[in-house]
Specification:
about 150 residues, alpha/beta, Rossmann fold, five-stranded parallel sheet, two-stranded antiparallel sheet, 5 helices, 7 strands, about 20% strand
């Protein structure tokens, strides 16, 4: 594993986006940043810029208006990237799945790599999902055509 891979995996940057939700999962995501759970002990940093993010963490379902925003955020992120859907709403649309303006889960708009179940998802489960996302990020990194050239 070269220096570039180690830095991307040892200190991933996370972009959090709230779709149309009740904000229950968002409160739990914020709880991950508190000293009790301290997600930064894994080197994970919350950023507001998609061009610096490795992991897109999405809570809530996607509606017609937010679909364009989610797709735009996803396209701005550099490769390889990972999408983590947090909560039932992000996975299937949750309690809002029959609403006229809800498309469903995030996977209706962009590909999702890791699903974190729950309503609202617990901070421990969110941290586990992000760490699983790091494994997916590593697997995607190894599939790059230039992997191993000049980094060893």
């Amino acid at each position: 594993m070269g220096l570039l891979e180690k830095t991307r995996l040892k200190s991933p940057w996370l972009l959090h986006y709230d779709g149309s939700s009740c904000n229950g999962c968002d409160i739990e995501v914020l709880a991950c940043l508190t000293p009790m759970y301290d997600v930064e002990r894994f080197g994970i940093i919350n950023t507001g810029n998609p061009k610096h993010a490795d992991i897109l963490l999405i809570t809530g379902s996607v509606n017609h208006r937010s679909a364009r925003v989610v797709k735009n955020l996803y396209e701005q992120m550099p490769e390889p990237k990972v999408v983590v859907a947090v909560g039932v709403c992000a996975a299937t649309g949750g309690v809002y799945h029959n609403c006229y303006n809800i498309l469903g889960g995030i996977d209706k708009v962009i590909p999702v790599d890791v699903y974190v179940p729950g309503c609202a998802a617990r901070p421990e489960a969110i941290i586990d999902g992000v760490v699983e996302g790091l494994n997916v990020l590593w697997e995607k990194w190894k599939r790059r055509p230039w992997y191993g050239i000049g980094y060893n």
